[in-house]
Design a protein that fits this description.
This protein is α+β, with helices and mostly antiparallel strands. It has nine helices and nine strands. Helices cover 24% and strands 15% of the residues.
Length: 372
């Protein structure tokens, strides 16, 4: 009561709403948004008598809840095929996960701003979600926690708005924490229908910028992956869609001259120690990658050029332990990247199709279609 009424308002606000204190190693300062009504000649003398003992610590290291995972079209409740891909014409359940921050207040949220490229209709059928009260560091998704999740609808326009079609919406948690979720829209390629066993894998490669297909609206799922394509696939999957390799010289491999397809990627792959070529100073860029060669490409891409797998034990009858590829093939199996080609075999000399490679890349490098 002994302070100027002007200052009393500020002190009451501090007492009512609290302060966030950052320890910067200096004296304590009070900061506020700039306003020409602040009068430091009044404020500084009023604040000077205050000490740390005048404040009460109510919570240490506060942090907001953290977005953890995103599941789309895997739950019952919409009008969809629940195949894990949001497709034109569907209403899907959108099931985010949030990590608790130690607060005892339940996490509730709202969805807003659902939209995307022009040419389609974007609708929010259910704009609320609830996550219960997850413990600090523990994640909870709305479907398992409360059954109360978002539902979003998308029209099925005659013309696809974009070859790579992404929509987005904003989630606001407890009125304070905002998160924009990106939602890939499937059925991107005319030759990879939703019934294809590699459908989600192919959509993931497109969404993550690993490939845009083989031209037009096609992916060419049954075509073999060449060694030059493999160079691009591995480096983009490992380093991200925005990665640009150094300019190639055209002097590293005799069969990859200046101007050759994927020159920069092939020479960068060699410089990274992932492949030394196919022998005789060549890279064999147009030769299909066999399943045994793929094992080496993937594991060196994942673990680094110096990686050496454990000795082979003889898992596959068509891959003898004497094969130089056996340790790589068996480690690929042990890491859960492949179970073989069926009948207990691995089919080491078979080429890989582009559809199969989508699954291998997705599993090896942890690529996701929907993520925080």
């Amino acid at each position: 009561s002994g302070f100027d009424p002007y200052v009393q308002k500020i002190f009451r606000a501090m007492k009512t709403y609290g302060l966030i204190v950052a320890d910067n190693g200096t004296d304590m300062y009070i900061g506020g948004t700039w306003d020409d009504r602040w009068d430091n000649g009044v404020l500084n003398p009023a604040f000077n008598p205050l000490t740390a003992a005048d404040f009460e610590v109510v919570q240490l290291s506060w942090q907001p809840p953290l977005a953890s995972e995103l599941s789309v079209d895997t739950r019952a409740g919409g009008s969809s095929n629940q195949n894990g891909v949001f497709e034109p014409g569907e209403t899907v359940v959108v099931d985010p996960s949030w990590q608790g921050n130690g607060s005892t207040s339940p996490l509730t949220s709202t969805a807003s701003g659902f939209g995307g490229p022009p040419g389609a209709t974007y609708s929010i059928a259910d704009a609320s979600a609830a996550y219960g009260t997850p413990a600090a560091g523990q994640a909870a998704d709305c479907f398992d926690a409360t059954g109360d999740c978002f539902a979003l609808s998308l029209s099925n326009p005659a013309t696809r708005p974009s070859a790579h079609w992404d929509a987005a919406f904003t989630e606001t948690v407890n009125g304070a924490v905002l998160k924009t979720w990106t939602l890939h829209v499937g059925k991107s390629f005319g030759d990879v229908p939703a019934t294809d066993p590699f459908y989600e894998d192919v959509e993931t490669l497109l969404h993550d910028g690993i490939t845009a297909g083989c031209g037009g609206v096609s992916y060419c799922p049954n075509a073999s992956v060449t060694r030059s394509q493999m160079a691009v696939f591995v480096l983009k999957s490992k380093l991200g869609a925005l990665y640009v390799p150094p300019a190639g010289s055209g002097a590293v491999f005799a069969d990859v001259p200046p101007g050759a397809f994927a020159l920069d990627w092939i020479e960068d792959l060699a410089a990274s120690g992932i492949s030394a070529g196919c022998g005789g100073s060549n890279f064999c860029p147009s030769v299909p990658v066999t399943r045994s060669q793929m094992a080496v490409f993937l594991l060196k891409g994942k673990h680094g050029s110096l990686y050496a797998p454990p000795a082979a034990a003889g898992i596959f009858p068509d891959v003898p332990v004497s094969s130089p590829f056996a340790p790589w093939i068996e480690e690929l199996y042990n890491e859960g990247i492949t179970a073989g080609c069926g009948g207990g075999n691995f089919c080491p000399d078979m080429p890989n199709t582009r559809a199969q490679m989508a699954a291998f890349l997705k599993t090896t490098f942890g690529l996701k279609l929907y993520e925080p």
